[in-house]
Every structure is written in C-alpha cells, then in structure tokens.
Design brief:
Rossmann fold, tRNA (adenine(58)-N(1))-methyltransferase non-catalytic subunit TRM6, 16% strand, 16 strands, tRNA processing, nucleus, TRM6, disordered N terminus
C-alpha cells in the first residue's frame, strides 16, 4: 500500500509488509521479515524469496525451507484421465488398492520429489484409479494434491481476506462475525472517505480495520474501547501506511458519561482513576489487608527505605543500589511520558466528540449493545446512519424497543444474514454440504432531531380540548 512510486511497485511484496498466506481454505497473516522462520500448517519456510514478487503468486516450498515461484503451467494428468470407468459401484475401499506404503512415500520425499510428482506416483500405483469415473478421478487428484503439494500463495491483506481468515480459524475472537455481514455493516453505516465514524468493537480490530480501509485514509475514526487499552491486532494486519493512523483516535468508553455531562477533565493527573473504578479494580482492597501488608516485599517505590535499613558497607551493594535507583528513575520517566501521551490522545478524541456531529456509528461487541448504543448515539448528527451487530437477536430487540420508546431514530430495521456457497462445475453444480448456520443479526437506523418540549405540550393539551367539547354538547 505504498503511496508513491510506479504502479508495479505497489503490487509487489516488500520487506516489512503484512501479507496473508493461503493454502486451500486456510489463511494466516504474517509480516515479511528476512531470515525469520515462518510456520504454516505444520511446515516451516522462509519468506525471503517472496520479496519483489507480485501479490497472488504461488510458491513451492523446496528443501531447506526456501520458496520458489511456481511456473505458470497447468498440466493435469490427462493421460490417465482418458481411461475412466462408467460408475464406482464395483470399487471396494479396503485400503489395499494403493501399492505404495507410507515408508515408500517418505522415501520419495527424501529423494527430493515434489508434490505433483508424488501424486503422479500414487496414481500409477493405484489399482482402482482407472476404474473410477472421471469426476471421481478429479476428486482423487485434488485430495492428494492438497495433502502432498507444498504450495503457498501470498495475498495482499484486505477486508474480505482477513474476515475469512478469522471466521475460519478463530470465529470466537470476532464474535462469529461473517464476512458478508461485515460487508452489510459497512454499507448500512454509509462508511466513505471524509466522514467521521465512531467504532465500538471487540472483534480483535477487524471491524476497525475494515472501516479504515473503506475510508481510504481520509476523515477521522474514533475507536471507543473498554478496559485499559484498545485492541488492534486485526487492524495492524492490514498494513496501513502511516497517514492512515493519523486519522485514528481512541477514547475509553468509561468516560462517555463524563463527556456528555461536560465534566471530563483531560488535564487530570491520573486519567485512569475513572477507568479503574469502572472496571472494578480491587487494588485498594489488597493494600488495606494488614496480613498481606506485613508479608509484602519491598516495591520499587520503597527500595530506598529498604536499602537504608541495610547495614552493609560493601561497595558492590552500593553500586547495585545506584543501578536500582537509576532504573527506578527511568521507569518513572517512561511512565510520565506514557501518561502524557495518553492524556494528549484523550484530549484529541474528546475534541472530536464534543461537536456531537459524527457521521456514523458502528457497534459490534460481545457486551450488551443497548447501553452502549443509547450512550454513543448522542454523538451523531441528525440524519446519520448507525448499525449494531450481535450474534443473537434478543439484545437487538431490546435496543429496537428502547429506541422506539425514546425516539430520535427512524427507519429501524432488524435483519439477519444468510449465505449459501455453491460448487459450480460441469454436470455437478450443487450447494456445498458444509456451510455456516447463521451470520448474526444487524440493527440499523437513521438518527433524527427531536423536540421534546413541543411534543409534550401537544400531548397535554389534547385531552383538555376534548373535555371542553364534551361539556358544550351536554349543556346544549
């Protein structure tokens, strides 16, 4: 994702880039580092030879863990495929049709035979291969290639690729968010360049990275995070350039109420005090325990007091004490620098949120979305979209009911995602046997400006007017 240079260099792998390795339906995100061993699907290799090659290139893993680009020749075993049976009813799967044993296959590997050559040997030593139908032969070859061919494809990270990687390997980390549901979230949230978007997610940074990729480095993104700090592992796998990170801000969710009330102090000495209280920090309980206080060892802050009680006059002990003091001072300075950086980030994010004119809101977390949605929707400008994802529909039904009661949102829609994969091949097109059971649920809507005093006055006057009319008719 380079910004300058010729167009060809943008599509080539460079050292330090984040890439996605693919073998079959399995993906893995890694960073290109020379002379670093990479383990993928129980096989290790080096990615040095991938530098300078085009994205989408397929490499063969040869002896020594080196990669070689596969030559662009698609030669199937057409000589054997010509002889095929009419049906498979007389084929017995008794395990005796293959003449090569496991030891023979290992010997072929030691001799340096590649995966395609080993597959050819298996075909020649199979007694039932020629009796199988043409479709069964292709299925057999595909299965053996997947097992014995040591090929790896290097892909450029993208929203679709990383979503498929997480959903296939660790769906729990992304709350079982499927890639088609993520695409609908970006569409319903109207994510585009130049907008101001609020993101609250606990999907390892995947949703945040997808939003930043759609915005293209223009606009601003505010990540609302729970806990002590934001999680951005998925976002870092995209390998965004530096100017993308300039548009990213972070704000702790525990300070939202203080910001809405206008009581947030960004110049406070300890900005994490509210965070510790909100997260139920029990450090005070441990400090007030007398038994634990007596048995507690000297902390780094009380090293001077501990060293003063020592009656040793050894020069080595004095040097060690001086080194400890220096380390303590360095740690104190580093802590001050980190606190100052965190205070600046908090102030910058608060300045973005104070206008309450955000253009979109995206929520996808393992927490109950109702209190989060009701708090963050106040930062949106009127006529702006919002979208909430949940693996289950019951929390979104509660959000739907609350929004209908308090107002401020129109076009509320609760939808579920469904997708089916098809195998498209000549004379054997059919749905895949294994597919995802559900893609979660989405609640989307549009904010509107509310005028509560006028609505309340009209509701109060209508019954009184009706009573006057009734009294007039009875007197007449």
């Amino acid at each position: 994702m380079a910004d300058n240079g010729d167009n060809d260099s943008q599509h080539r792998v460079n050292e330090g880039d984040y890439v996605v390795l693919k073998r079959g339906d399995i993906y893995k995100a890694v960073q290109i580092q020379k002379k670093k061993k990479t383990v993928f699907e129980k096989q290790w290799f080096f990615l040095d030879n991938a530098v300078g090659e085009l994205y989408g290139t397929t490499f063969e893993v040869v002896t020594g863990g080196t990669l070689q680009p596969r030559k662009p020749k698609c030669v199937e075993s057409s000589a054997d495929a010509k002889e095929a049976g009419t049906d498979n009813r007389n084929i017995l799967d008794d395990g005796k049709s293959q003449k090569l044993t496991r030891d023979d296959i290992e010997t072929l590997k030691e001799q340096g035979l590649k995966g395609q050559e080993i597959v050819q040997q298996l075909i020649e030593n199979s007694t039932t291969f020629r009796d199988k139908t043409e479709f069964a032969q292709e299925k057999y070859i595909k299965k053996k290639k997947k097992k014995y061919e040591n090929s790896v494809m290097v892909l450029r990270p993208s929203c679709r690729v990383l979503a498929m990687m997480y959903h296939g390997r660790e769906p729990g980390k992304i709350c079982h968010l499927r890639y088609d549901t993520l695409a609908q979230m970006l569409t319903l949230g109207n994510i585009h360049a130049g907008s101001k978007v609020l993101v609250f997610e606990t999907c390892a940074g995947l949703v945040l990275g997808a939003v930043m990729e759609r915005m293209g480095g223009y606009g601003s993104v505010v990540q609302m995070y729970p806990g002590g700090g934001p999680v951005r592992a998925g976002m870092e796998s995209f390998g965004f350039p530096s100017h993308f990170h300039d548009t990213l801000h972070e704000f702790p969710i525990c300070h939202v109420n203080a910001l809405l009330a206008g009581a947030l102090d960004t110049e406070a000495k300890d900005i994490d005090a509210d965070s510790r209280q909100a997260n139920g920090d029990k450090s005070n309980l441990t400090q007030t325990d007398p038994e634990k206080a007596e048995s507690k060892e000297c902390s780094p802050d009380t090293e001077d007091q501990c060293m003063e009680t020592s009656t040793s006059t050894d020069p080595a002990a004095d040097k060690e004490r001086e080194e400890r003091e220096k380390r303590r001072e360095i740690r104190g300075q580093e802590k001050k620098v980190k606190m100052e950086e965190k205070r600046k980030k908090l102030a910058a994010a608060a300045a973005v949120l104070e206008g309450r004119n955000a253009d979109g809101l995206v929520i996808a977390s393992r927490f109950h979305p109702c209190p989060v949605l009701l708090g963050l929707i106040k930062f949106l400008a009127p006529s702006r979209p919002f979208v909430v994802y949940s693996q289950y529909k019951e929390p979104l039904i509660e959000c739907y009911t609350k929004l209908r009661e308090q107002g401020g949102a129109v076009s509320l829609r609760l939808t579920d995602s469904w997708i089916r994969h098809y195998q498209v091949l000549p004379n054997r097109t059919h749905p895949m046997l294994l597919m995802s059971g559900g893609g979660g649920y989405l609640l989307s809507g549009t904010t509107v400006a509310t005028d509560t005093p006028k609505t309340g006055s009209t509701r109060g006057e209508e019954p009184a007017a009706k009573r006057l009319k009734l009294t007039e008719t009875t007197e007449g």
